Amino acid sequence: MNLVQAIIEGIIEGITEFLPVSSTGHMIIASSVMHIEKDAFTKMFEIAIQLGAILSVVVLYWRKFFDFSRWQFYVKLIVAVIPALVLGKLFADKIDLLLESPTTVAVSLLAGGIVLLFIDRFFRKETITTETEISYIKGFIIGIWQCLAMIPGVSRSAASIIGGMQQNLTRKLAAEFSFYLAVPTMAAATGYKMLKTWQENPEVVTNTHNIQLLAIGNIIAFIVAMLTIKFFISYLQKHGFKLFGWYRIVLGIVVLVLFYTGNL
Q1: What is the mean pLDDT of the chain?
Q2: Is 70's pLDDT higher than 70?
């Protein structure tokens, strides 16, 4: 991976991490298109670059994350992230294999796109408008929905937002809780991946060039993610999910065509 590729991947991560379009899927597609070798560093980079996106959530919602008087907020996130921690640990190797499959991404994009076209009709009972109304049980159920994103192309954001709406959260609150939940989920995934890489290929983590690429990618992802989150919340309240559904369907078809014609 070179500097230009790292910058492009940072932009893609920043745009797609919090939109219901699958950041992992886009990273896999981008890597294939740019012919980036799937070595130990690339696999780590595509996970660790999420740190920049995580930081954007903490900065934008700093009042929420640093209000230590409301300890229930932190407990809810811990409860909600448990399913992902358990299943992620149990199926880590199988998930790594799926990350190398453009076909899996394409099918997931298509299926998720179809769901998003109709999601606003499925869940119309929006009775929960504030984070304090989310119970621990509801948080745990949203965390289970989030685990669907372990399949590349599903989208962590889409899965957790749909889970929130299924639990009667408003679209805005479902999206915001998805952002909050991203912090411990992606921090755990990034920490695990970097630790595993350190144990298996320590030179990958300590290489100066690799550190520079990872730092640049995260800075780009942080800046772009902040802008994307602000756009998404505003757009979602006014227009819903249909645009993202059609985008996923078109992209899924394009990926399948490219793959089966030998161009991906």
Answers
A1: 88
A2: yes
